[in-house]
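Follow-up to my post from last week.
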Amino acid sequence: MSGQVLSRRGFVAVSGGAGAGLVLGFSLLGCDRRAEAIGALGPGTLNAWIRVGTDDTVSFLLSESEMGQGTHTALAMLLAEELEVPWDRIRTEHSPADQDLYGRQSTGGSTSMRSNFERMRVAGASARLMLIEAAALRWAVPASECRVADGRVEHDDSGRSLSFGELADAAAGLEAPESPPLKEPAEWRLIGKRIRRLDSPSKIDGSAIFGMDVKVPGMLTALVARPPVFGGSVRRFDPEPALAVPGVRQVVEIPSGVVVAADGFWAAKKGRDALEVEWNPGDFGDASDESIRERCRSMADDGAVVRSDGATTSALEEAATRIEAEYEAPFLAHATMEPVNCVADVRADGCDIWTGTQAQTSAQDIGARITGLPTEKVRIHTQMLGGGFGRRSRNDFVADAVEASKALGAPVKLMYTREDDMRAGSYRPVAYNRLVGGVDGRGMPTAWEHRMVSPSILLNIGARLQDGVDPTATENAGNLGYSIPNIHVTWTDPGLPVSVHFWRAVSNSQNVWVTECFLDELAAAGGRDPVDFRLALLGDHPRRARALRLAAEKAGWTSGAVRRTQSGADGSGATRSAMGCAVAECFGSVVAQVAEVEIIDGVVRVPRVVCAIDCGFVINPDTIEAQMESGIVYGLSAALYGKISIENGAAAEGNFDRYPIMRLREMPRVETHIIAEGDALGGIGEVGLPCIAPAVCNALFALTGEPVRSLPIGDRYRS
Amino acid sequence: MPKYSITVNGTIRAVDVPADTPLLWVLRDELDLTGTKYGCGTGQCRSCAVHLDGEIAYACLVTIQSIGDQEVLTIEGLSDDLSHPVQKAWLDVDVPQCGWCQPGQVMTAAALLEEHPSPTDEQIDEWMSPVLCRCGTYGRIRTAIHRAARGGDR
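User reply:
Got it. Predicted complex:
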């Protein structure tokens, strides 16, 4: 499909591919409303999740966003498991945005499998029964005598057989069973199996269409000149120098800045470079890492109580050993490999939006708000996402594109350069943590005080705090799982000008690092082994203890050991190595990791990571392994290098030269061990991340005797 | 604006763009070859890797005026049917996640195997480390390159 010019209104039909015969919908809507919602999607496309083409291909319309996590393949497995369609006949596509058909569409929180595990199987089973019913009616035999195999309905007694494609039109007219019986797990032929991704071929021949690859007739390409500091605004601008650049068509102002629209990217970039804008600096032009740090530190004692067990203050006074520490984690950019972007076409009669978004219904709401059109006139055409990690649930890029198309009176591809993307805010929140721990004479912890200061994502997205607390800021801190009799945890929002947003694993990404590292400090204070120390405190959390035991066993855990391997005669190449561990429970899953860390000539290396993941049960083991590798690499990039610095009210980092991410030569050997003991299904897209920073830092602590209390590690060690 | 004639994937294509236009935007905006990806614009991520006369090049840094008669090969021209050994190995190992960097990874691996048909881990490190991936497919990339070098056998 590469290079294809998509018609502005024909994209759904184009991406549909196979001839549309049957769309089986399953929803709680009444028949009339469902028919109406399906009808609004266009002729021949009835919708919900399954469309059987007259050519026997089966298209699955998926309301979840595919951003690399493998969700389209896994959702297809669930649908195909019950539909009994051959795997090579399956096509997947992103469904349109339609709250009535799909509910609120948002892909995040590692929820796709958990929220769709039953829904997709029911949809597949319902469709199968409709196809059987259609065949039975045609043959005038009882449906109970018909069976489905390999994309066909068969009647053994008469030897008759019809393909799904041949039955599609007839089946489409039948009532959809809403509570079909589902297979027993023992009957599954796809779920639990190692199934290859459906999207791999198009991603290695260049044919996959991502948001940035979309082209519609008459489209301009635009860049936005945005205020150079957070909180700034446009004072005045002179469009003439930009308009003098060949290919630049229009210069217009929108709420976020000044749009330079041109025939293509290069003209837009040169036009924006030439544009002259005077800015109002706003109130935060002097904000810096230091001012933010001081502000956070000054507010540490003012937090709302997240949790208070026992009498922490007195227990700390009575402790045999008392440890105090400040842990600080920086802002982080998502740095999706595809910078955010959006194509929008605002017309009087409707608005079409082509983009890689994690939040379709919110994008639709944004389009409706800006254009004044009814929601159903705003059509979202979700494209492949070149990485998401939470960034693409923000939809600021959608707002910019819709504003720009409205102001330009033309369809527009709103691009972000890498620098635009990296400096746009929506960061993982900075976090300041003050901790005090008490250990008794036996080396066991008696008290834990944790004061957190970290910007609220909920406040940033216009939501409310709950009892003065943002629960998305306190994961794995407020609900610390270790059996410590006295625990006091507080949190407060420092009210910073820099916008924050969901970043892979959300606050688990900082909090697991803080709590798991401080726990190692307490273990060391009492002379305890980090694994044994945790196991002794995890009596209330047997799944965490089991995962930790498995990771430690598979890693060949050695506590505090510092091995020295062969070094050169001059002492160069000396290797000092140690292991560190961490365990966490989030997104319904449990992960424990052991990292092997070495310092070679002063450079930190992580050659091996052993990961135990307990996600209840397995849909596709290959996807689980891939997501553990992915979370570990993403978390390791952050731990080793990740930092957005605020200088003079703006992000200092703009590109990969100053915001490095891990490279192939640094990739550890990742060994993933899956625990599937029949517990509730857990998520996998984020849970691989939180443990890697503390596992690595705890290994460094074992190696050097110095705790790592600020990230990135590269600030202190070369990496 | 100046007119240029370049050979892309074996076909001569005429474009009318300023001399300083990077090949990346000629491919994407003028020729509708969107398999070559933009990631940084500064030659640091290598998502835009293509071949120029068989040598690896970064399309965001190469200007149209510098192409001359060098033949441009993009991911769309690597094979018609996913039959290039690198593509076959990539499918066998199921390398991609989000996929944005993968055309650059595949083109770089193809050039590596032209230079070193049986690359060592060190050669893979050297050739592939400049190509950034945010999803963490590096381990599978290494496995797939070794597999491609062995002609697809395990």
